[in-house]
Amino acid sequence: MTPRHPDRDQIRIESVLSALGSRVRLDAVRVLDAGGEHNCGSLLGILGVTAKSTMTHHWRVLRESGVIRQRPSGRENLLSLRREDLDARYPGLLDAVLTGALRDDTDDAATSPAPARR
Amino acid sequence: MTPRHPDRDQIRIESVLSALGSRVRLDAVRVLDAGGEHNCGSLLGILGVTAKSTMTHHWRVLRESGVIRQRPSGRENLLSLRREDLDARYPGLLDAVLTGALRDDTDDAATSPAPARR
Fold this sequence. Notes:
By secondary structure, chain A is mainly α. Helices cover 55% and strands 12% of the residues of chain A.
């Protein structure tokens, strides 16, 4: 069964912002921004997340807000970013968010103790 | 007592997005974007919100994420948008969000039944 997705004109900005307003969901979107479809398992591996059940909730939030598309494939779901829809509806938003996340990373790296190097 | 505000470099994008990811908070930010300081009472009036206690929570979310500044003045707090900080840290983000909210309004107006006019 294909899960429910909002059409492009049903997407609302407060739902998109709320969906992106979580570190793990934002990280998932950053991975998906590379393009193409990811299965949940590979995405969890990239994110370093082991709690698959928690992520089921996060995928739903991202899907119901219109940020990602979930496509059933065998026993899995394939996930992709709805970049075209988001860019058409909210020009510049996703780019500003992704650039902002990078900016935070830079600041976090500058303030965190450097990892020991061998 | 002046409530706690994050410094500009302590602001994090997921907190900003989460703070903006609520209709009433986003509406408040849209009002504050006109500039200057608003007291809570006048802002509630503009927003058509009567539940002052609920809004206390919303002001805190907006303040702690770095979106607004709260300045005590007598028995009230004056609220203002931290646009300079947000624009410096996340260029284009706030403009994309506010433009997006306008876009939603246009779509909502187009799909809602027209109010009776006399």
